[in-house]
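May I ask for an example protein's residues together with how it folds?

___
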Amino acid sequence: MELSNRQEQIIVIVKENGPITGENIAEHLGLTRATLRPDLAILTMAGFLDARPRVGYFYTGKTGTELLTEKIKQFKVQEYQSVPIVVKEDASVYDAISTMFLEDVGTLFVVDDNACLIGVLSRKDLLRASIGNQDLNAVPVHIIMTRMPNITVCYREDLMIDAAKKLIEKQIDGLPVIKDTESGLEIVGRITKTTITKAFVELIMDEHL
């Protein structure tokens, strides 16, 4: 988050004189309390300053990097998950390839009749299946998909940073977001490398602050 010159001045004043009231900060700058109200609100919401009733503002002692890290650690999967692209287990490899291109995704999730996750299809899986002379319309995806327990998953309540770590550690493009049901693992969303990038870009551009 890039601060204005006035906001930087406010932080210095609070560092040296805190706790200090908004009126006293305004006096230091030769401005009115009303003029400073937006700046104080931004600095407080961003975490640079804290405020207590009848006490005033004080500096939290945290750097911009530390505050950015704290924000990232608060992001939940449910805030950014997107709609999962699924295929049935009896779909053909040809249909799966067509779906992947039409939906412009790198990962397909295979579900049973109860919409529960039973497999994952990556670009590599479909590419391997396409090599050779076999009829792709005759090969069902359940033959080539990755099955449990070799599927890495996440839950809506998980932290985005943890989902990002899984993507990196497993060297995969996407994670299914699931919830436990009596029928199995119902897929309710997806998190991808693109999702993670979008979240971080929004944070840097102050859209999430």
Notes: The chain has a mean pLDDT of 88. Residues 15 and 59 are 6 Å apart (CA to CA). The longest strand covers residues 184-192.
